[in-house]
Amino acid sequence: MTDLKIFKEVDDLLDQLAEMICEASEKAIGERGQFNFVLSGGSSPQKLYELLASERFKHKINWDKVCFFFGDERFVPADDGRRNSLMAEQALFNPLKIKKTNIFEVDTSGTPEESAQKYWNAVTKHFSGKPVEFDFILLGLGDNSHTASLFPDTPVLEEKEATIKSVFVAEVEIFRITMTAPLINKARHIAFLVFGKEKSEAVFHVLEDKSGSACQYPGRLINSDEKKVFWFLDSSAASKL
Fold first, then answer.
1. Is the pTM of this model over 0.90?
2. Is the pLDDT of residue 203 over 90?
């Protein structure tokens, strides 16, 4: 059974999620010497990143020991405003003066396939031959039930390997680089951050609806183990549950 955390106010939701990230980072750094944190793109996480960089939270994490990754990225040039990494840079990395060596961005200078392979190579090198298990993966949910760049009816949904792949998403007419569902599912903690009435249908399809398939509602591909997967929802996003 999935662990649902439902809040009336978005600010309370973000506060509790920030606290969970702080606790997870402390545990990871204490046990393994670093915190491997996978960020999500989109508009919802921006407020969370700004909160983590605020006076209230910035001293609660040893940022020198945090390594940042991206669950997915649009295949666009490095300076393109649509990149997830640019939003994170403005909201989180720059305010906290995060070292460049701690940030693993997706290199989009080659082909989409080369980009995915390069990113996977960088990730496996970082883990020094050990299993790739991120400490915390933050995910969003689109109103079509996609998460990361696992969009409905795309071939990457069939991927059984824990890796990083490129995928062309016809509905938005762009290539994306994405972690596969098996890779996401290996993480120690996974948190969905979802708020707003417009997400309520997608939340219902992923969490309660028994019809359809994961090809239609890709969020279903993510593990539902209540010990490690948490859904942070506001009451509007949870209104159809």
1. yes
2. yes
